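Q: Sequence in, structure out?
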Amino acid sequence: MRFFFFTKTRWQEPPRIRHQLAKLLADAGHCVEFFELPLFPWQTRTKADTGHERISLHNYKQLIHHKLRLTKSLHYLNAAYEEPQIRRILQHLEVLDSDIVVLFNYEYFFIRRIFPNNRIILIINDYFWSNPLGGFEKPLRWALAKTCRTSDRVLAVSPPLIELLRPYCKAELFFPWADVDYQAPQFGSYRNILLFWGYIDQRLDLSYVEALANAFGQGDLDYEIFLVGPIDIYRRDLKRLGMCPKIRFGRSSPLDDLPLSRVLCGFNPYKSNVTSINAATLPNKTLQELARGLPQVITGMPNFIDQPFVFRMTGVVDRDIEVLNSLRSRFDDLQPAISAFVSANSAESRLKALMDYVA
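A: Exactly. Output:
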Protein backbone atom coordinates (compact mmCIF):
# COMPACT_ATOMS: atom_id res chain seq x y z
CA MET A 1 0.00 0.00 0.00
CA ARG A 2 1.14 3.57 -0.64
CA PHE A 3 0.64 6.56 1.67
CA PHE A 4 0.88 10.27 0.87
CA PHE A 5 1.89 12.35 3.90
CA PHE A 6 1.31 16.12 4.01
CA THR A 7 3.05 17.73 6.98
CA LYS A 8 4.30 20.90 8.62
CA THR A 9 7.67 19.27 9.23
CA ARG A 10 11.05 19.10 7.56
CA TRP A 11 12.52 15.62 7.59
CA GLN A 12 15.69 16.85 9.30
CA GLU A 13 13.77 18.18 12.31
CA PRO A 14 13.81 16.26 15.60
CA PRO A 15 11.54 13.21 15.18
CA ARG A 16 7.84 13.81 15.70
CA ILE A 17 4.79 11.67 15.18
CA ARG A 18 4.78 12.19 11.38
CA HIS A 19 8.37 10.91 11.05
CA GLN A 20 7.57 8.06 13.38
CA LEU A 21 4.41 7.05 11.52
CA ALA A 22 6.17 7.21 8.16
CA LYS A 23 8.93 4.90 9.42
CA LEU A 24 6.41 2.55 11.01
CA LEU A 25 4.56 2.12 7.72
CA ALA A 26 7.76 1.80 5.70
CA ASP A 27 9.13 -0.85 8.06
CA ALA A 28 5.87 -2.75 7.57
CA GLY A 29 6.51 -2.85 3.81
CA HIS A 30 4.43 0.14 2.68
CA CYS A 31 5.65 3.08 0.60
CA VAL A 32 5.44 6.67 1.88
CA GLU A 33 5.52 9.82 -0.23
CA PHE A 34 6.43 12.42 2.39
CA PHE A 35 5.54 16.04 1.47
CA GLU A 36 7.61 18.25 3.74
CA LEU A 37 6.70 21.62 5.24
CA PRO A 38 6.23 23.96 2.27
CA LEU A 39 8.96 26.52 1.80
CA PHE A 40 8.34 30.20 1.17
CA PRO A 41 8.97 31.61 -2.33
CA TRP A 42 12.36 33.04 -1.39
CA GLN A 43 13.65 29.88 0.26
CA THR A 44 15.72 27.20 -1.43
CA ARG A 45 15.36 23.50 -0.91
CA THR A 46 17.90 21.61 1.19
CA LYS A 47 18.27 18.00 0.13
CA ALA A 48 17.79 15.37 2.80
CA ASP A 49 18.05 11.62 2.93
CA THR A 50 15.40 9.68 4.82
CA GLY A 51 17.66 6.69 5.19
CA HIS A 52 14.77 4.47 4.13
CA GLU A 53 14.26 3.24 0.56
CA ARG A 54 10.48 3.18 1.01
CA ILE A 55 10.21 6.86 2.08
CA SER A 56 10.54 9.56 -0.58
CA LEU A 57 10.63 13.30 0.13
CA HIS A 58 8.83 15.97 -1.89
CA ASN A 59 9.08 19.76 -1.68
CA TYR A 60 6.89 22.62 -2.82
CA LYS A 61 6.16 26.16 -1.62
CA GLN A 62 3.53 28.14 0.25
CA LEU A 63 2.69 31.77 -0.28
CA ILE A 64 1.47 32.71 3.20
CA HIS A 65 2.17 31.19 6.62
CA HIS A 66 -0.95 29.46 7.93
CA LYS A 67 -1.27 31.82 10.91
CA LEU A 68 -1.06 34.86 8.61
CA ARG A 69 -4.04 33.78 6.51
CA LEU A 70 -6.29 36.21 8.32
CA THR A 71 -9.21 36.03 5.90
CA LYS A 72 -10.89 33.35 3.81
CA SER A 73 -9.57 35.11 0.72
CA LEU A 74 -5.99 34.62 1.88
CA HIS A 75 -6.69 30.92 2.46
CA TYR A 76 -8.03 30.62 -1.08
CA LEU A 77 -5.07 32.60 -2.45
CA ASN A 78 -2.56 30.32 -0.75
CA ALA A 79 -4.46 27.23 -1.93
CA ALA A 80 -4.33 28.54 -5.50
CA TYR A 81 -0.55 28.83 -5.11
CA GLU A 82 0.09 25.43 -3.51
CA GLU A 83 -2.39 23.20 -5.33
CA PRO A 84 -0.82 23.40 -8.82
CA GLN A 85 2.61 22.57 -7.38
CA ILE A 86 1.27 19.49 -5.62
CA ARG A 87 -0.49 18.38 -8.80
CA ARG A 88 2.73 18.71 -10.81
CA ILE A 89 4.54 16.45 -8.35
CA LEU A 90 1.70 13.91 -8.43
CA GLN A 91 1.84 13.71 -12.23
CA HIS A 92 5.09 11.76 -11.84
CA LEU A 93 3.74 9.49 -9.11
CA GLU A 94 0.66 8.06 -10.85
CA VAL A 95 -1.81 8.22 -7.97
CA LEU A 96 -4.06 5.17 -7.61
CA ASP A 97 -7.48 5.06 -5.97
CA SER A 98 -6.05 2.62 -3.43
CA ASP A 99 -3.48 5.16 -2.18
CA ILE A 100 -4.12 6.68 1.24
CA VAL A 101 -3.65 10.33 2.19
CA VAL A 102 -2.39 11.01 5.74
CA LEU A 103 -2.87 14.70 6.41
CA PHE A 104 -1.23 16.60 9.28
CA ASN A 105 -2.12 20.02 7.86
CA TYR A 106 -5.33 21.15 9.54
CA GLU A 107 -6.01 23.89 6.97
CA TYR A 108 -5.77 21.84 3.73
CA PHE A 109 -9.46 22.23 2.87
CA PHE A 110 -8.57 21.86 -0.82
CA ILE A 111 -7.03 18.38 -0.50
CA ARG A 112 -10.16 16.54 -1.70
CA ARG A 113 -9.93 18.34 -5.05
CA ILE A 114 -6.50 16.79 -5.52
CA PHE A 115 -7.44 13.32 -4.26
CA PRO A 116 -11.13 12.92 -5.22
CA ASN A 117 -11.20 9.12 -4.95
CA ASN A 118 -8.76 8.47 -2.11
CA ARG A 119 -9.26 7.83 1.56
CA ILE A 120 -8.07 10.82 3.62
CA ILE A 121 -7.02 10.47 7.26
CA LEU A 122 -6.55 13.79 9.10
CA ILE A 123 -4.32 13.62 12.20
CA ILE A 124 -4.40 16.56 14.60
CA ASN A 125 -1.38 16.41 16.89
CA ASP A 126 -1.24 20.00 18.07
CA TYR A 127 -3.41 23.05 18.67
CA PHE A 128 -2.08 24.72 15.50
CA TRP A 129 -4.85 27.31 15.25
CA SER A 130 -4.20 28.78 18.70
CA ASN A 131 -2.78 32.27 19.28
CA PRO A 132 -3.31 33.60 15.76
CA LEU A 133 -1.86 36.96 14.79
CA GLY A 134 -4.12 39.75 15.98
CA GLY A 135 -6.59 37.25 17.42
CA PHE A 136 -7.90 36.30 13.95
CA GLU A 137 -8.85 32.77 14.92
CA LYS A 138 -12.11 32.59 12.97
CA PRO A 139 -10.49 32.14 9.51
CA LEU A 140 -8.24 29.40 10.89
CA ARG A 141 -11.21 27.60 12.42
CA TRP A 142 -13.07 27.96 9.11
CA ALA A 143 -10.22 26.16 7.30
CA LEU A 144 -10.06 23.52 10.05
CA ALA A 145 -13.81 22.85 9.80
CA LYS A 146 -13.67 22.44 6.02
CA THR A 147 -10.65 20.13 6.28
CA CYS A 148 -12.36 17.98 8.90
CA ARG A 149 -15.49 17.67 6.75
CA THR A 150 -13.54 16.62 3.68
CA SER A 151 -11.62 13.91 5.57
CA ASP A 152 -12.84 10.33 5.91
CA ARG A 153 -11.46 9.96 9.45
CA VAL A 154 -10.12 12.50 11.92
CA LEU A 155 -7.69 11.36 14.60
CA ALA A 156 -6.36 13.40 17.54
CA VAL A 157 -3.53 12.61 19.92
CA SER A 158 -5.21 13.71 23.16
CA PRO A 159 -8.70 13.95 24.71
CA PRO A 160 -8.47 17.77 25.00
CA LEU A 161 -7.86 18.00 21.25
CA ILE A 162 -10.87 15.76 20.64
CA GLU A 163 -12.98 18.21 22.66
CA LEU A 164 -11.62 21.16 20.67
CA LEU A 165 -12.57 19.36 17.45
CA ARG A 166 -16.06 18.41 18.63
CA PRO A 167 -17.82 21.35 16.85
CA TYR A 168 -16.44 20.15 13.51
CA CYS A 169 -16.28 16.37 13.59
CA LYS A 170 -16.25 13.24 15.70
CA ALA A 171 -12.52 12.74 16.16
CA GLU A 172 -10.99 9.51 17.46
CA LEU A 173 -8.10 9.10 19.88
CA PHE A 174 -4.76 8.05 18.39
CA PHE A 175 -1.92 8.13 20.91
CA PRO A 176 1.76 8.07 19.89
CA TRP A 177 3.78 4.94 20.58
CA ALA A 178 7.24 3.94 21.71
CA ASP A 179 9.88 3.82 18.98
CA VAL A 180 11.48 0.75 20.57
CA ASP A 181 10.44 -1.98 22.94
CA TYR A 182 10.95 -1.28 26.63
CA GLN A 183 14.64 -1.35 27.51
CA ALA A 184 15.39 -2.02 31.16
CA PRO A 185 17.74 0.68 32.48
CA GLN A 186 20.87 -0.13 34.41
CA PHE A 187 19.67 -0.91 37.91
CA GLY A 188 21.46 0.65 40.87
CA SER A 189 23.07 3.26 38.63
CA TYR A 190 24.02 6.69 40.00
CA ARG A 191 21.37 9.03 38.63
CA ASN A 192 21.40 12.80 39.08
CA ILE A 193 20.34 14.31 35.72
CA LEU A 194 16.93 15.84 35.05
CA LEU A 195 16.70 15.61 31.25
CA PHE A 196 14.60 17.92 29.12
CA TRP A 197 14.66 16.57 25.56
CA GLY A 198 12.74 18.71 23.08
CA TYR A 199 12.20 22.27 21.90
CA ILE A 200 13.68 24.78 24.36
CA ASP A 201 11.27 27.66 23.91
CA GLN A 202 9.18 30.20 25.82
CA ARG A 203 6.59 27.60 26.78
CA LEU A 204 9.06 26.36 29.39
CA ASP A 205 8.85 27.84 32.87
CA LEU A 206 12.40 29.15 32.77
CA SER A 207 12.07 31.02 36.07
CA TYR A 208 11.17 27.76 37.79
CA VAL A 209 14.03 25.92 36.07
CA GLU A 210 16.45 28.60 37.28
CA ALA A 211 15.05 28.57 40.84
CA LEU A 212 15.26 24.78 41.06
CA ALA A 213 18.81 24.74 39.72
CA ASN A 214 19.87 27.46 42.16
CA ALA A 215 18.36 25.45 45.01
CA PHE A 216 20.48 22.48 43.90
CA GLY A 217 23.58 24.65 44.14
CA GLN A 218 22.71 26.31 47.43
CA GLY A 219 21.87 22.97 49.03
CA ASP A 220 25.06 21.38 47.74
CA LEU A 221 22.92 18.74 45.99
CA ASP A 222 24.24 16.60 43.15
CA TYR A 223 21.25 17.10 40.83
CA GLU A 224 21.71 18.93 37.53
CA ILE A 225 19.40 19.96 34.69
CA PHE A 226 20.33 19.01 31.12
CA LEU A 227 18.38 20.86 28.39
CA VAL A 228 18.79 19.15 25.00
CA GLY A 229 17.25 20.40 21.77
CA PRO A 230 16.78 23.41 19.48
CA ILE A 231 16.89 26.71 21.38
CA ASP A 232 14.31 29.44 20.76
CA ILE A 233 14.28 31.59 23.89
CA TYR A 234 15.14 35.22 24.58
CA ARG A 235 18.86 35.92 24.64
CA ARG A 236 18.63 37.36 28.15
CA ASP A 237 17.05 34.12 29.40
CA LEU A 238 19.68 32.02 27.69
CA LYS A 239 22.46 34.11 29.22
CA ARG A 240 20.90 33.92 32.69
CA LEU A 241 20.43 30.14 32.56
CA GLY A 242 23.89 29.67 31.12
CA MET A 243 25.41 31.31 34.21
CA CYS A 244 23.92 28.64 36.47
CA PRO A 245 26.42 25.81 37.15
CA LYS A 246 23.59 23.31 37.66
CA ILE A 247 22.20 23.86 34.14
CA ARG A 248 23.82 22.76 30.91
CA PHE A 249 22.66 22.72 27.31
CA GLY A 250 23.10 20.12 24.60
CA ARG A 251 22.53 20.12 20.87
CA SER A 252 19.68 18.16 19.35
CA SER A 253 20.64 14.53 19.67
CA PRO A 254 19.07 11.08 19.47
CA LEU A 255 17.97 9.96 22.90
CA ASP A 256 20.27 6.95 22.86
CA ASP A 257 23.30 9.20 22.34
CA LEU A 258 22.74 10.85 25.73
CA PRO A 259 24.18 9.60 29.06
CA LEU A 260 20.98 7.74 29.97
CA SER A 261 22.66 5.68 32.69
CA ARG A 262 22.88 8.91 34.73
CA VAL A 263 19.43 10.29 33.85
CA LEU A 264 16.92 10.22 36.69
CA CYS A 265 13.84 11.35 34.76
CA GLY A 266 12.34 13.02 31.76
CA PHE A 267 11.89 16.62 32.95
CA ASN A 268 8.98 18.63 31.51
CA PRO A 269 8.99 22.07 33.21
CA TYR A 270 6.21 23.78 31.26
CA LYS A 271 4.30 26.92 32.20
CA SER A 272 0.69 26.75 33.28
CA ASN A 273 -2.10 28.02 31.03
CA VAL A 274 -0.28 27.55 27.72
CA THR A 275 -2.98 26.41 25.30
CA SER A 276 -0.85 24.03 23.26
CA ILE A 277 0.64 22.49 26.42
CA ASN A 278 -2.74 22.19 28.12
CA ALA A 279 -3.90 20.04 25.19
CA ALA A 280 -1.05 17.53 25.65
CA THR A 281 -1.85 14.18 27.25
CA LEU A 282 0.91 11.88 26.00
CA PRO A 283 3.52 13.78 23.95
CA ASN A 284 5.44 11.78 21.39
CA LYS A 285 8.73 12.21 23.24
CA THR A 286 7.25 10.88 26.49
CA LEU A 287 6.91 7.34 25.20
CA GLN A 288 10.45 7.44 23.80
CA GLU A 289 11.75 8.31 27.25
CA LEU A 290 9.54 5.76 28.98
CA ALA A 291 10.81 3.06 26.62
CA ARG A 292 14.26 3.73 28.13
CA GLY A 293 12.84 3.37 31.64
CA LEU A 294 12.74 7.09 32.51
CA PRO A 295 9.97 8.26 34.88
CA GLN A 296 8.40 11.64 34.12
CA VAL A 297 8.55 14.85 36.16
CA ILE A 298 6.17 17.62 35.07
CA THR A 299 4.89 21.10 35.76
CA GLY A 300 1.88 22.63 34.04
CA MET A 301 0.36 20.09 31.62
CA PRO A 302 -3.01 19.64 33.42
CA ASN A 303 -4.13 16.83 31.09
CA PHE A 304 -0.96 14.75 31.21
CA ILE A 305 -1.41 11.03 31.86
CA ASP A 306 -1.93 10.02 35.48
CA GLN A 307 0.38 7.08 36.17
CA PRO A 308 2.51 5.95 39.14
CA PHE A 309 5.69 6.89 37.27
CA VAL A 310 4.54 10.51 36.69
CA PHE A 311 5.55 13.03 39.37
CA ARG A 312 3.92 16.45 39.39
CA MET A 313 6.04 19.22 40.90
CA THR A 314 4.45 21.75 43.23
CA GLY A 315 6.43 24.82 42.20
CA VAL A 316 7.87 25.07 45.73
CA VAL A 317 11.50 24.08 45.23
CA ASP A 318 12.13 22.64 48.71
CA ARG A 319 9.14 20.34 48.39
CA ASP A 320 10.06 19.50 44.82
CA ILE A 321 13.53 18.42 45.89
CA GLU A 322 11.83 16.02 48.28
CA VAL A 323 9.86 14.67 45.30
CA LEU A 324 13.11 14.10 43.42
CA ASN A 325 14.68 12.37 46.40
CA SER A 326 11.66 10.07 46.62
CA LEU A 327 11.80 9.37 42.90
CA ARG A 328 15.49 8.48 43.08
CA SER A 329 14.88 6.02 45.91
CA ARG A 330 12.02 4.39 43.98
CA PHE A 331 13.53 4.44 40.48
CA ASP A 332 14.05 0.68 40.19
CA ASP A 333 10.66 -0.11 41.74
CA LEU A 334 8.87 2.00 39.10
CA GLN A 335 10.17 -0.07 36.21
CA PRO A 336 7.41 -2.76 36.11
CA ALA A 337 4.72 -0.07 35.72
CA ILE A 338 6.73 1.70 33.02
CA SER A 339 7.34 -1.56 31.15
CA ALA A 340 3.64 -2.46 31.20
CA PHE A 341 2.64 1.01 29.92
CA VAL A 342 5.16 0.92 27.07
CA SER A 343 4.00 -2.58 26.06
CA ALA A 344 0.39 -1.37 25.95
CA ASN A 345 1.42 1.48 23.63
CA SER A 346 3.57 -0.45 21.18
CA ALA A 347 4.24 0.17 17.51
CA GLU A 348 2.37 -3.01 16.61
CA SER A 349 -0.83 -1.84 18.33
CA ARG A 350 -0.71 1.55 16.57
CA LEU A 351 -0.02 -0.01 13.16
CA LYS A 352 -3.00 -2.31 13.57
CA ALA A 353 -5.20 0.62 14.60
CA LEU A 354 -4.11 2.69 11.59
CA MET A 355 -4.70 -0.14 9.14
CA ASP A 356 -8.17 -0.59 10.63
CA TYR A 357 -8.84 3.09 9.97
CA VAL A 358 -7.89 2.85 6.30
CA ALA A 359 -9.66 -0.47 5.68
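The chain has twelve helices and 15 strands.
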